[in-house]
Amino acid sequence: MAWIKTVPLDQADPALRQVYEQIYALYPADYREPVASLVDPDGTSESITAAHSLIPEAMRHMMSGFAVLLRPDLPLTRRQQEMIAAVVSVENSCFY
Question: What pTM value is reported for the model?
Answer without folding.
Answer: 0.75
